[in-house]
Amino acid sequence: MKKWIIFFVFLSCINNLYSQTWERAFGYIPEKEEGAMTICKLSDGNFVASGYSEETNTWTARMLKISPYGDTLWSKSFSVPNSERAYIYASLSLNDGSFLVAGECKIITNNSGGLIPTGFVAKFNSNNNLQWIREYSANNVVSKIFEIIVANDGGFICIGNDYILKINNDGIYQWHKLNSGFGVKSIYSIKSFNNGYLSLANTFPNSTFYLLLTNNYGNQIWMKQIPTLGMLPAKFFPTQEKILIFGGFQDTGTHHQNFVLHTFDTSGNFIISKRVNVQREEISDGFYLQISPNRYLLSSITPLTAATHYCTLRLLDTNLNIIRYKELTTTAGFRGLYSAVMQDSNYLVTAGNISLHLGSGYEDFYVVKTDTNLNLLVSIGIKKLETETPDAYSLHQNYPNPFNPSTGIKFTLPEESFVKIEIFDITGRLTEKIVEKKMSAGTYEAVWNGADKPSGIYFCKMTAGRFMKTIRMVMVK
Hints:
Layout: H1 2-19, E1 22-26, E2 34-41, E3 47-54, E4 59-66, E5 72-78, E6 83-93, E7 99-108, E8 115-124, E9 130-135, E10 145-150, E11 156-160, E12 163-167, E13 173-178, E14 186-193, E15 196-202, E16 209-214, E17 220-226, E18 235-238, E19 242-250, E20 256-265, E21 270-281, E22 288-292, E23 295-303, E24 309-317, E25 322-328, E26 335-342, E27 347-354, E28 364-371, E29 382-385, E30 394-395, E31 406-413, E32 417-425, E33 430-439, E34 442-449, E35 456-464, E36 467-475
Parallel strand pairs: 1-29
Antiparallel strand pairs: 1-28, 2-3, 3-4, 4-5, 6-7, 7-8, 8-9, 10-11, 11-12, 12-13, 14-15, 15-16, 16-17, 18-19, 19-20, 20-21, 22-23, 23-24, 24-25, 26-27, 27-28, 29-34, 30-31, 31-34, 32-33, 32-35, 35-36
């Protein structure tokens, strides 16, 4: 009897673990491209994923506020005044509940009618209302902002493709330094360090990489060369004792992905390099996140075809041992994750874009919550369709049907409900759970991927409140 009690307690702990994790797709403009490039955690415990949204004649900046359970709290899009396009690449939450987003806009000129690219920053207060928005074309800032941090002496520090920019608490321009003044072309990342700012820079197209330390006014203190990282962006993590720099490159012949870790002391002196080859073609077009002092999470993209890609998450230690990895696969379209933030010491939330639509290539926001061991409840996406609240529960026939190996399953909820959607094989054996959680009212579409299942007849059963329905599905490979 005691053994059974222990067993059920174990099952309860496992169920609670997985019920905390999820992945979601969010679409707002039908048959248009949308996606997140950055995510931040607000002081109220919720998250804002930000990026872009394609509309009829332009692109607008879009933000999506999400609860820790994956529920949509609001979605907003905005344009920068006197501009035609806007994209968000960076975000920053503040202790008072406000947050900033930054990126690129295209300013309309008065003479030729052309567009001038420049960086912008917008601040939203704790009630999620726009407080101010600034663009910096008048200050000759001519490329996007892709990172923003709190400045050591008040205000904010931003970096772009060819500059370091300082603004005050109201977004007013104070100064910017061009990368050419340091003898480099690009800066990838920046962090506060030793009462100054430490950043990664390179001399593209020569691909010589450097650690660059500047003071609070953007003046160079020292610059130290880094061993070759390849042509791909990198991320660094400074501590009181050392500086860890992650990067990656592809083998010339095989295109297999290599992850690299360089260690420096806090004066910028090189200590050691390590490398691991993952033995397949990948692209380091993702994020690097510190999970703990000795564990780091890296994302990458594996191309299956020219138009189909999936995302891989890898948990590595400081010896570049791969502790665990998770593949978020797809057979139609692609998945990419480009930014991540810790929820707490046990969970993280990451954002990007996804194509879930069979036979079409448009994208949606994609947000995934997993624990620090990469446990994830499902391996499919659930898209909430932005329509009016349905009048009744329903489970629609899957489409396409027959299918190989993916199919869409549409269902509606007239009120908040605990929903369970399960897949059974012809013998009645449960093969997969697609949904098992409380969900808000709305119309949803899930895509089930049966790539690892044999051809045959399957049954999809939905239970929500007193509603119960089963549909018959046929997979033909």
